[in-house]
Amino acid sequence: MSAWEEIDEWGPEKILQVYDPDTCMKGVLVIDNTSTGPGKGGIRFADSVTPIEVFRLARTMTWKCAAAGLPFGGAKSGIIADPNKVDRVAWMKSFAKMIKPYCPSQYIAATDIGTTELDMAIFAHEIGDMRACTGKPAELGGIPHELGTTGYGVTTALETAIEVLEESHTLHITKKQAKVCVQGFGNVGSFTARFLDSAGIKVVAISDVSGFIYNKDGLNIPRLMTDMKGKARLSELKGSIYDINDKDGIFEVDSDIFIPAAVGDVITDRTASKLLKNRVKIIVEAANLPTSPSASEYLHKNNVWIIPDFIANAGGVIGSFVEYQGRTEKEAFELIRYKIVKGVRNVLAESIMREENPRTFATEMSKQIVYRAMLLRKGAINVAREAYARLDKISV
Ligand code: GLU
Q1: 57 CA closest ligand 1 atom index
Q2: CATH value of 3-63+73-142 in 3.40.50.1370, 3.40.50.10860, 2.60.40.1180, 3.40.50.300
Q3: Cα dihedral 88, 90, 94, 95 in deg (nearest 10)
Q4: Which of 77, 133, 150 has most ligand 1 atoms within 8 Å of its beta carbon, as the pocket-test mutant?
Q5: CA distances in angstroms from 195 to 86, 307, 393, listed in the order given
């Protein structure tokens, strides 16, 4: 299946597949929609990357940037290899060279799964423009995603969801009682666990590709962080105080809140019924596209509140925007809190009122914003005026 088959009224505007015979680097860039600004989105570096996946992630960025009110459109790119098995510097340089004509006018990169602030330094230098990407090291004026911007936003999203559900008498869980499972222990999952712990929220289980650890009374997160120093995988903790279980066991844990914080497509019909059996009541999508549409509907019908990825995990791109403006790390965290609280409040309150899946309202809201921007780009002022009136009705 080709990414062209995904074309609809929103995009994608460009699909670029590149190959460099000198390094054997293969990569993909999808610029989905630039009506609200240059396409923004990270570079995923993994052997599983496909053009369809990059397109789906680019579309998620379109809705994410619109919902957060950022002057960016949606895009994403991918380099197809395990970064630990190739010459990652040569491949990153080669990818940058290939997509240079689009950066930063139509595409502004950032980190994603498999890339770090160091890759961003290489990318920006190769393009010869520091505005070609965000998530750069501090020495280059960057606000690295490794500061935990996404995890901070995810924690804020969860705290806000608990408050709104309580205020509307929809669900009663206090921050103190809540038991949380975090699936994934990379940049997003590990920071989410840390920020949850600082917010006084109990993390009972954490998993990564190698296994999962569990403590029904709550894991000691600061201790875990110390124990993980110099280790790449949870399984390396074997033989210490931790029992390492099979990674899929995380779906069997009794908990109130489940946070998928790794790759996509993990909450399927099968895992959704397990989550329901374990009495999960809130899912915060820290990963992009973790839930299949049918699992999302099934969970919603069974009273599970899902905070959609493009609302819950926008902390990273909000931080990127602050970097892009040349502002500080402190301002990044402040803006993340402000925008995530506003976004989650708005989406949840409307969804409770309309009795619909939060993803449905959130997508409708983002579509309205992008639609209006597309009309303005076309110069269709009168139609745009009508669209403004309609947009006001859904209170963005
Ligand atoms: N990779 C992050 C995301 O999926 C950040 C993207 C960005 O800052 O451009 O949201």
Answers
A1: 4
A2: 3.40.50.10860
A3: 10
A4: 150
A5: 34, 18, 35
Residue 43's contacts (CB-CB under 8 Å, 6 or more residues apart) are 77, 78, 79, 95, 109, 110, 111, 112, 115, 119, 123, 133
Give the end-to-end CA distance of the chain in Å, rounded to a whole number: 36
- Location of each CATH 3.40.50.720 domain in the chain: 149-361
Residue pair 191/148 in contact by the 8 Å Cβ criterion: yes
Instruction: Say yes or no to pLDDT of 208 above 80.
Output: yes
Q: What is the pLDDT of residue 378?
A: 86
Global pTM reads 0.95
The pLDDT tens digits of the residues spanning 110-148 come to 999 999 999 999 999 999 999 999 999 999 999 999 999
Q: How far is CA 99 from the centre of its chain?
A: 23
Ligand 1 proximity of 40 Cβ (cutoff 6 Å): yes
Structure tokens at 225: 């962080």
Contact 37, 105 (CB under 8 A): no
Contact of 310 with 362, CB cutoff 8 Å: yes
Tokens encoding 130:
């520091």
Average pLDDT score over the chain: 94
Cβ-based neighbours of 177, under 8 Å, separated by 6 or more: 256
Residues 76, 93, 202, 339: which is the catalytic one?
76
- Does domain 149-361 fall into CATH 3.40.190.10? no
Q: Which two tokens stand for residue 188?
A: 């997003």
User: By the 8 A CB rule, do 190 and 371 touch?
Assistant: no
